[in-house]
Amino acid sequence: MNTKLPFSTLHFTMNLFKTLAITGLVLYLAYIIFFTESNCPSSDFFSPLQHIFTQNSQTILPPPPTSNTTNVSHLIFGLVGSLNAWWHRKAYIESWWRPNVTRGYLFLDTAPTAELLPWSAASPPLRVSDDISGIVRESKHVAPVMVRMVHAILEVFREGDQGVRWIVMGDDDSIFFVDNWVDVLAKYDHTKYVYIGGHSETILSNFYYSFDQGFGGAGFALSYPLAAAMVKDLEGCLKRYPYLNSADLITQYCVDELGVSLSDERGIHQIDLKGDISGFLSSHPQSPLLSLHHFDVVDPIFPAMDRFQSVNHLMKAAKADQSRLLQQTICYHRPTNWSLSVSWGYSAHIYEKVLPRSFLKRPLETFRTWIKKPHPPHYMFNTRWPPFSDPCDAPHVFFFQSVENETDHIVSTYVRSSPRGLPACSASGNHSADFISRVQVVSPTTKLVEAGRSECCDIVHAGDNNVTEIKYRACKDDEIIA
């Protein structure tokens, strides 16, 4: 038989439960306040609920202040060279080294002779490499010079500089673009184990050595925690691999032992190329320029200049706007069917035909392979092959001449290097660009932020006074460059 409670009894029971629930909630909140603001340990019983409440309460608080952004003072450069080569490589380093700003050391194999003393204040502080003959003798290492180069990591670390986040190693015949290194390294977590480097431009170099190594002549970066872990047994690592004849490969093996793989940056250039590299520099990957190596092997990069003059000339553009240096920007002039490609601070090309951006991104193969190989593929990128005799595909070439900083923009000027020596492109209307003697590029004074997309440009004047003027701007949403 079903029975029902009297209304008064039911009402009393419901009120009792409400009272108990409210009382329990008040006691729990009092517990949270008391125990979270005191040093008393919380009980295991309440901890799950306490986690829920405290987690929700934290979401309304402002985020904690972030640590300061990586700047040039957080980088230490370790540059390895030889006394014999220093005489003619000194100008390379002094072109980019900033005394009292850039931090680091130059390690020579022997002490400098009297002719080099007193040591130039425009050069990095001098150190003489450690005597590593004991390591070589004990391990019977096949490449003592390579042991010295890798051992320099330990010697840089041992200097004990304060506030270091990154150790950047490189050779004395490389050009470093320090501001871009700072910006790129700022993207990475310097508190973790990080190994940053670049590949060779040639397939065979990567194959002969390793696709997993950073080619160190052009520079590689180790986060401070990774370097600290490496130096604990770096000499042991050198002894474990006496058969390796490459400093870069030895470094990779030592990094691999700590479970770390290479993070590739496309702006680090080993320049395993020979001859005229203007075609390569005129179609730079869409990535900040970090370094250029092997300057003693390639031709001077500017006409009518030697190698040292060329480096200093390029650094004029770098001082004005390092973020845009060599970054390729492409735009079109429909009335004449011209395509214009600018490698900022280095060159400008005018083509008498509308050519796809995918085509113009491929470097003109003005250079030769580092290692002789009879058949392609040679390179880690697509190229446009010579001869460049088709008037619709061959560019009018202009090289960087000057740069001026205005109030709200930068004007860089590029002058024709030589006559093209070809007729006009008949397929696109015979609109010759032979009369153009200069290209002027107007770009913003603001730093170019790497965001996975190039800038866009407009051709303001196609040929007034024999000058073509181009103005850079941010691309519009969904804008197609074609």
From TrEMBL:
Q: Which UniProt keywords apply?
A: Glycosyltransferase, Membrane, Transferase, Transmembrane, Transmembrane helix
Q: Which domain of life is it from?
A: Eukaryota
Which Pfam families does its entry note?
DUF604
InterPro entries the UniProt entry points to = DUF604 (IPR006740)
Q: Which GO terms of the molecular function aspect are on file?
A: glycosyltransferase activity
Q: Where are the transmembrane segments?
A: 12-34
Q: What is this protein called?
A: Glycoprotein-N-acetylgalactosamine 3-beta-galactosyltransferase
Which organism does this record belong to?
A: Actinidia chinensis var. chinensis (Chinese soft-hair kiwi)
